[in-house]
């Protein structure tokens, strides 16, 4: 056997052994209105298969998912597989008018993609208007057959989905805000696995119970599925050991509190090492924007030791012990927590950078257009809220998706002149002149060559108000190599870069009045949106998109669109 044949044979054996255990999993998601009662009131809530939260999908690294989505609701819908790399399968990514036109009422579309090289907790959610308030669920990726976790195997695993509930139709909330130009009404409750918990009216009978036994080590897969609110999460009297985030393993570290921005996931081990009893796990807001109204309620679930359970015998269960949560504006706790993350192994961080980008992110205020009545301009001082990156407020197309327009060469849908740097340098976190409050609307993309090594400085601004923004990039994981406060200074802040073991994430919390630096290699062709995961800010335009060009040959080229791709 010649040396090349020998190598080919070895590669073939490796390939066959990797793919031998890979499975194709098929599911059907029916989007439908379902009667859901919360806070004493019944609503016609949009759900998947009548379930709230939606079904948990459990797969192995290497498996392929085929999910047929049938829309029996009265709204357009798409589903996004949050954090899935979607290598060459951009058509399955899901953001409305970015990679596909929405699935119209009565229509259907099958999402097909393979999850490769990712393990841990991701999730799926609607990516159309505010439907993701109730259309979401966990996506759990276990190691391949014969492989194990890089930590002791937990006795049991429990997804913990943190959500946000409006005591009205969330679609009406966002439509009203779009009409008035004001901030949308805040939520009425937070939820754990879709239940508000004991501290809300008409809720304590349904409070989520999480079982544990003395001496057990269990895995909690915590997901922030809230629409607009970063959340603190704590379990009374129990420490949590973080072992993963956004489907990447981390160096384990122990903490008593988590903070997750919307979109983020954190895997933690919890030990049954306390006296058998009942303990509240609780979540409430981390509110970084000053003077902005927010939902200040607290959601709870109960960590219940088996021996303290009343399931088997009639008894008065002890009142659960309540954790003390951080203050709503406790940025110090958030900083300590976010700076504790490290990749488990030495990271392959790109070093020779081809594209060095600097993006300001933040809010804005548009002056009231002359043809608008006063009631349409109910933002501060008779304005309308807006938001932007590098002073461009992102506008989604309406007649084509961006990926279709790119693939089919349709002119006039987008331009590729998104600025690599702010059009104007200013004191980003200082007192900003009112003349900079009005961004320019546009559908501008930034073009990246296949394989280019990219660095982005994400800089918060104090326009209107500084805020912690969870920025999510579709189609990619990235390394967070540094974070800090104030204005990013390349002269002194470059020394803070961690190029050894920075954490790999798909969503980064850009600190309040501060900055974060991320790096990735543009190895996935397609159109990929990067946006703030506070949905109120997406509506206002806090987004941009990358157009990553095809490379050479089939493996560096996006697959052709599937035949059932919805048309606009």
From TrEMBL:
Coiled coil: none annotated. Residues 31-145, 157-307, 417-550 form the Plastocyanin-like domain. Its EC number is 1.10.3.2. GO terms for biological process: lignin catabolic process. The keyword Transcription regulation does not apply. Residues 1-22 form the signal peptide. Its cofactor is Cu cation. SUPFAM superfamilies: Cupredoxins. Keywords: Apoplast, Copper, Glycoprotein, Lignin degradation, Metal-binding, Oxidoreductase, Repeat, Secreted, Signal. It is an enzyme of class 1 (oxidoreductase). It is found in: Secreted, Extracellular space, Apoplast. Binds 4 Cu cations per monomer. GO terms for cellular component: apoplast. It catalyses: 4 hydroquinone + O2 = 4 benzosemiquinone + 2 H2O. GO terms for molecular function: copper ion binding; hydroquinone:oxygen oxidoreductase activity. Pfam families: Cu-oxidase, Cu-oxidase_2, Cu-oxidase_3. Belongs to the multicopper oxidase family. Lignin degradation and detoxification of lignin-derived products. This is Laccase.
């Amino acid at each position: 056997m010649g040396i090349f044949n020998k190598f080919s044979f070895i590669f073939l054996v490796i390939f066959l052994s990797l793919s031998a255990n890979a499975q194709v999993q098929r599911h059907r998601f029916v989007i439908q209105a379902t009667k859901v009662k919360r806070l004493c009131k019944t609503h016609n809530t949009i759900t998947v298969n009548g379930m709230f939260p939606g079904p948990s999908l459990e797969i192995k690294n290497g498996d392929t998912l085929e999910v047929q989505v049938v829309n029996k609701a009265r709204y357009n819908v798409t589903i996004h597989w949050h954090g899935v790399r979607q290598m060459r399968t951009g058509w399955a990514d899901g953001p409305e008018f970015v990679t596909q036109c929405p699935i119209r009422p009565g229509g259907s579309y099958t999402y097909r993609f393979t999850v490769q090289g990712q393990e841990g907790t991701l999730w799926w959610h609607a990516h159309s208007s505010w439907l993701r308030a109730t259309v979401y669920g966990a996506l759990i990726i276990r190691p391949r057959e014969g492989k194990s976790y890089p930590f002791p195997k937990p006795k049991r695993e429990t997804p913990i989905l943190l959500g946000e509930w409006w005591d009205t139709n969330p679609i009406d909330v966002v439509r009203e805000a779009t009409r008035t130009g004001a901030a949308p009404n805040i939520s009425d409750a937070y939820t754990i696995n879709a239940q508000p918990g004991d501290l809300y009216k008409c809720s304590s009978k349904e409070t989520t119970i999480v079982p544990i036994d003395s001496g057990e080590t269990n895995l909690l897969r915590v997901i922030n599925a809230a629409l607009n609110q970063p959340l603190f999460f704590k379990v009374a009297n129990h420490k949590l050991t973080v072992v993963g985030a956004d489907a990447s393993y981390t160096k384990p570290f122990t903490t008593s509190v988590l903070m997750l921005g919307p979109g983020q996931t954190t895997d933690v081990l919890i030990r049954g090492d306390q006296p058998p009893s009942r303990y509240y796990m609780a979540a409430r807001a981390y509110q970084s924007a000053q003077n902005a109204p927010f939902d200040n309620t607290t959601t709870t679930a109960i960590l219940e030791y088996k021996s303290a359970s009343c399931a088997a015998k009639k008894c008065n269960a002890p009142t659960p012990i309540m954790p003390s949560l951080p203050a709503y504006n406790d940025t110090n706790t958030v900083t300590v927590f976010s700076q504790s993350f490290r990749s488990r192994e030495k990271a392959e961080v790109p070093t020779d950078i081809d594209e060095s980008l600097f993006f300001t992110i933040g809010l804005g205020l548009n002056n009231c257009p002359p043809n608008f009545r006063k009631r349409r301009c109910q933002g501060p001082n008779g304005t309308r809220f807006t938001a932007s990156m590098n002073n461009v407020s992102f506008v989604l197309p309406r007649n084509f998706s961006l990926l279709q327009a790119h693939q089919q060469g349709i002119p006039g849908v987008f331009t590729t002149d998104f600025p690599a740097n702010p059009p104007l340098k200013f004191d980003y976190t200082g007192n900003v002149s009112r003349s900079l409050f009005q961004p320019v609307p546009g559908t501008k993309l930034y073009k990246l060559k296949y394989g280019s090594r990219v660095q982005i400085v994400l800089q918060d601004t104090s326009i209107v108000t500084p805020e912690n923004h969870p920025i999510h990039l579709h189609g990619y994981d990235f390394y967070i190599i540094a974070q800090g406060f104030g204005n990013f200074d390349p002269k002194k802040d470059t020394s803070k870069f961690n190029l050894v073991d920075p954490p790999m994430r798909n969503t980064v919390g850009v600190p309040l009045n501060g900055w974060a630096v991320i790096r990735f290699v543009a190895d996935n062709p397609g159109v990929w949106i990067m946006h703030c995961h506070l949905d109120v800010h997406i509506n206002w335009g806090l987004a941009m998109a990358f157009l990553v060009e095809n490379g050479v040959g089939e493996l560096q080229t996006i697959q052709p669109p599937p035949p059932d791709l919805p048309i606009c």
